[in-house]
């Protein structure tokens, strides 16, 4: 198992856990139970190689990390998933307990089916694998996203996404579907631009949605902000703008620029 220094913890553990789980053994050389647990963790690392990474942090060499993650006794074993602690135990534990801890970190059967579907070239077979995954986990986000992407039926895609856990990716997909569906109902961009130019305020929100659905997010945000500033379309434009924000994600530069402008327009 790799000994991780304080300076590399973020890269190896926090960022690394965004690709696959990372189990951290907080230990010290003077700790007898730590030395007893170490061979078992080594065994688990071998059994789960390629699926779970296992590293060690010497608390005497990295006291700030121990304090940051609330290590009050050692050995303290913490599993990181997506940059956060997802599970932990403290003290020397029996082999079955440690094995169960690791088993809960690896891909589930539903995960494996989704992975298999990703390599399947036959559309019917791929769909069957994804449906099996959702039978095992009715709210599996990756399976729902893949099923939704596999259909041209907007309502069917919405229905399957509605069953999924509301991860950021699922919320983005739902918002994108909403924008697309609305834009298909209201007509093309040029017709909507003409209506807005003629003073049709109701067409402004539809134009913003249509622009966003077509990928012109910067123009869509500008149009919808104008809609928020208009009393008759304020609420509808705000809701559409928030959908655009969801599609782009909070870290997108356009969203960061537009949020203060939205707040100013609202208040």
Automatic annotation (TrEMBL):
Gene3D superfamilies: Glutaredoxin (3.40.30.10), Tetratricopeptide repeat domain (1.25.40.10). Pfam families: Thioredoxin, TPR_20. The keyword Oxidoreductase does not apply. It comes from the Bacteria. SUPFAM superfamilies: Thioredoxin-like. Keywords: Disulfide bond, Electron transport, Redox-active center, Transport. GO terms for biological process: response to stress. PROSITE patterns: THIOREDOXIN_1 (PS00194), THIOREDOXIN_2 (PS51352). GO terms for cellular component: cytoplasm. InterPro entries: Thioredoxin-like_sf, Thioredoxin_CS, Thioredoxin_domain, TPR-like_helical_dom_sf. This is Thioredoxin.
């Amino acid at each position: 198992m790799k000994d991780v220094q304080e300076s590399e913890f973020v890269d190896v553990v926090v960022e690394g856990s965004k690709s696959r789980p990372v189990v951290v053994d907080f230990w010290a050389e003077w700790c007898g139970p730590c030395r007893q647990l170490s061979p078992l963790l080594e065994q688990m690392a071998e059994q789960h190689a390629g699926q779970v990474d296992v590293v060690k942090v010497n608390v005497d060499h990295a006291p700030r990390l121990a304090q940051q993650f609330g290590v009050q006794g050692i050995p303290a074993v913490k599993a990181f998933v997506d940059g956060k602690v997802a599970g932990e135990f403290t003290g020397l534990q029996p082999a079955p307990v440690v094995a169960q801890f690791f088993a809960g970190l690896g891909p589930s059967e539903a995960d494996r089916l989704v992975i298999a579907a990703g390599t399947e070239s036959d559309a019917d077979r791929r769909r069957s694998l994804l449906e099996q995954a959702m039978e095992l986990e009715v709210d599996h986000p990756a399976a729902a996203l893949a099923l939704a992407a596999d259909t041209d039926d907007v309502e069917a895609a919405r229905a399957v996404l509605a069953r999924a856990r509301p991860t950021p990716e699922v919320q983005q997909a739902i918002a994108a579907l909403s924008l697309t569906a609305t834009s298909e109902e209201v007509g093309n961009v040029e017709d909507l631009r003409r209506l807005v130019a003629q003073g049709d305020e109701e067409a402004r929100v539809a134009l913003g949605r249509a622009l966003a659905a077509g990928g012109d997010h910067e123009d869509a945000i500008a149009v919808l902000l104008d809609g928020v500033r208009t009393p008759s379309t304020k609420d509808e434009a705000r809701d559409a703008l928030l959908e655009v924000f969801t599609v782009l994600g909070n870290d997108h530069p356009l969203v960061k620029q537009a949020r203060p402008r939205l707040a100013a327009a609202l208040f």
